[in-house]
């Protein structure tokens, strides 16, 4: 997750079930733990481990269980931090907020169901940019349906124009959009007949 030095979450992604209140509580505790003056990139409490990396005015923070592999956690954190420049031009709160969904999709490629995937930066880029075959087929079908609907509308419009011209030549009322016509009377008689 990305947070400010005050502990305000900018982007947060949970890979295990956790309530919002719990996350906010963990984030609120993080800045207080940072004031210990240690030079490490992790801090432990009774229940969790914060693995973090300062990034200008922000922190990239992974919150893990205390029994997780610290070396794997640090490697995961490095990969998370390498993903950020792929989507954000600057490490600023508004830039990260603007690209939050791209970042979350990339994070999902790194960790699945709480476990780190064996991927590198190039694979993450490929996976997030990749269009699925089903999506391409869906788009093609939708575009074909739209083209067919437009062609049908043009054909119907031409038929109506031709019918109007023919009616004008014969001196009759043009068919189409005028009033209720016979339909109104048929409904009236239907209503009257059964009630």
Automatic annotation (TrEMBL):
Looking up InterPro entries in the UniProt record yields: AP_mu_sigma_su, Coatomer_dsu, Longin-like_dom_sf
Q: Which CDD domains match?
A: Delta_COP_N
Keyword Transport tagged: yes
Membrane topology is: Peripheral membrane protein
* Record keywords, A-Z: Coiled coil, Cytoplasm, Cytoplasmic vesicle, ER-Golgi transport, Golgi apparatus, Membrane, Protein transport, Transport
All copies of the AP complex mu/sigma subunit domain together span 4-124
Give the residues annotated as coiled coil.
141-173
User: Does Membrane appear among the keywords?
Assistant: yes
| One GO term (biological process) | Golgi localization
- What would be one Gene Ontology cellular-component term for the protein? COPI vesicle coat
Q: What is its main location?
A: cytoplasm
Compartments (UniProt record): Cytoplasm; Cytoplasmic vesicle, COPI-coated vesicle membrane; Golgi apparatus membrane; Endomembrane system
Query: What is the purpose of this protein?
Result: The coatomer is a cytosolic protein complex that binds to dilysine motifs and reversibly associates with Golgi non-clathrin-coated vesicles, which further mediate biosynthetic protein transport from the ER, via the Golgi up to the trans Golgi network. Coatomer complex is required for budding from Golgi membranes, and is essential for the retrograde Golgi-to-ER transport of dilysine-tagged proteins.
Task: Tell me its family.
Answer: Belongs to the adaptor complexes medium subunit family. Delta-COP subfamily.
Q: State how it assembles.
A: Oligomeric complex that consists of at least the alpha, beta, beta', gamma, delta, epsilon and zeta subunits.
Q: Which named protein is this?
A: Coatomer subunit delta
């Amino acid at each position: 997750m990305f947070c400010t030095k005050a502990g305000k979450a900018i982007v947060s992604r949970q890979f295990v079930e956790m309530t919002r209140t719990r996350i906010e509580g963990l984030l609120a505790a993080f800045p207080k733990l940072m004031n210990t003056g240690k030079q490490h990139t992790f801090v432990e409490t009774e229940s969790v481990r914060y693995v973090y990396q300062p990034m200008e005015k922000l922190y990239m923070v992974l919150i893990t269980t205390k029994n997780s592999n610290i070396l794997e956690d640090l490697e995961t954190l490095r990969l998370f931090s390498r993903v950020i420049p792929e989507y954000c031009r600057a490490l600023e709160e508004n830039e990260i907020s603007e690209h939050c969904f791209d970042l979350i999709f990339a994070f999902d490629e790194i960790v699945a169901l709480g476990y780190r995937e064996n991927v590198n930066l190039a694979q993450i880029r490929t996976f997030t940019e990749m269009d699925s075959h089903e999506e391409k087929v869906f788009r093609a079908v939708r575009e074909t349906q739209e083209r067919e609907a437009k062609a049908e509308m043009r054909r119907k419009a031409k038929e109506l124009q031709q019918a109007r011209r023919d009616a004008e030549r014969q001196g009759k009322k043009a068919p189409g959009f005028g009033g209720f016509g016979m339909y109104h009377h048929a409904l009236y008689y239907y209503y009257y007949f059964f009630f």
